[in-house]
Amino acid sequence: MVDLNVLDCSISTKVAVGLQDYVYIWDNSTRRTTRLSTSSQNDKTLCSVRWSVSGSSLAVGLSTGSVEIWDIATSRVVRSMCMRMGRIASLAWNGIGLTSGSRSGMMFNHDLRVRDHKVHTYSRHSLEVCGLKWAGDGRRLVSGGNDDIACVWDARNLNVPANVFVHQAAVKAVDWSPQNTSLLATGAGSDDKKIRLFNVSLGSEIAQHDTGEQVG
Question: Where is the CDC20/Fizzy WD40 domain (predicted)?
């Protein structure tokens, strides 16, 4: 299995599901499905999808290390970016900016308005980055990796993580509280099986729940 983060819901009524070389867009308002072909080449497999904040664009991460930006209104690729750092397992929008996480453990911030789109490189994870999410206020980013850690990055200083939280398995499920962007929830794999809640301002874990199963 190559697919990792291949399901995402937009702010409106659309759902994106990635299957092999295709993305299927379900529009609940029209009850119609649109199929987008990510590539005409057989060696490109879809690994991740993420809606933009507005819901007008969809970022698609591929096994070749490329990211495609689709304009949903026209069903066309408007930007293609190649990182050459292994498959793109995770994506996260921050306004008009995009962050990608790769199999190599490298992460990049992209400014889609300029030709040289890579504007920052993160290099804390030693294995694949399988979870990414910006907080709603755009001030913090969390990255979860197959190296069993979740890193919290402060937008004012992206050179080193502000917090590193150790888990017992890969951290794929990550999300911020919409009411309090200091509160972070994570879920880890089969050797951990816990949902954890952190206060990142204090740098501490404040609660956990053993689910008995892999989370994410």
Answer: 4-215
